[in-house]
Known about the structure:
Elements: H1 2-10, E1 13-20, E2 32-39, H2 42-54, E3 59-62, E4 68-70, E5 78-81, E6 88-91, E7 94-98, H3 103-112, E8 115-116, H4 128-133, E9 137-138, E10 141-142, E11 147-154, E12 159-164, E13 182-190, E14 192-193, H5 196-213, E15 220-223, H6 234-240, E16 247-248, E17 251-253, E18 260-263, H7 269-287, E19 296-298
Parallel strand pairs: 2-5, 3-5, 4-19
Antiparallel strand pairs: 1-2, 6-7, 7-13, 8-14, 9-10, 11-12, 11-13, 15-18, 16-17, 17-18
Helix pairs in contact: 3-5
Amino acid sequence: xxxxxxxxxxxxxxxxxxxxxxxxxxxxxxxxxxxxxxxxxxxxxxxxxxxxxxxxxxxxxxxxxxxxxxxxxxxxxxxxxxxxxxxxxxxxxxxxxxxxxxxxxxxxxxxxxxxxxxxxxxxxxxxxxxxxxxxxxxxxxxxxxxxxxxxxxxxxxxxxxxxxxxxxxxxxxxxxxxxxxxxxxxxxxxxxxxxxxxxxxxxxxxxxxxxxxxxxxxxxxxxxxxxxxxxxxxxxxxxxxxxxxxxxxxxxxxxxxxxxxxxxxxxxxxxxxxxxxxxxxxxxxxxxxxxxxxxxxxx
Length: 299
């Protein structure tokens, strides 16, 4: 195994052995992975993926762990973290972004350059790769509206290729990346020119709105449940059923916004999962609606 890690290190990959995932997720929950691998370049990322596949090693990809809930158990897979792949390049209204670039920083930089289309992403935590993976959106904006293509690693054929927007099969909080074959390396966006001060002000207002409405002072994985249909507001439904503030162990339905489950007091993975099942059951009984979890869950 030491030769395996040495080879990855010599090919541009930082290695953290026996790494607690709770130190890398916004929810502050997660067990130990045998190794967290942090490629420093796209080439190192591709090499690492190929090496793991050829050696038959199971692995998963993460950015900043914003939309991720990880089991407390000792994990039986490696974790590749993309945080070093964070370059952002502007060329007119076109933007090329590496998968590990912070979404919030991208939104801020676009505004500073007088480019509109990313205002909705102001304050959205996590990486651009994660945002593309789940077609992140807010305030009537979605990544699918600005993505033009992505450079990806194809795990099946072990090659790098380009996917167009249509090929990425975007939908509500979903994309082709969730099927597991492709790994996003870099994404090309198309924004629109607009008066710089107007874009900055819109970005600021949406950031302020997010801060006022969401429980950003406590660990969470963002909005916990997908909206099952356009006219059904999950947070409102949960609140109407009197579940705001409901706890299981250290996990709590936010008192500020009932659409969030927060880590109020050293919650465990099981606390969060049990609380989410209580909510799903109550919503099903009251509204005959089946809720789906929005964050990615690693068991």
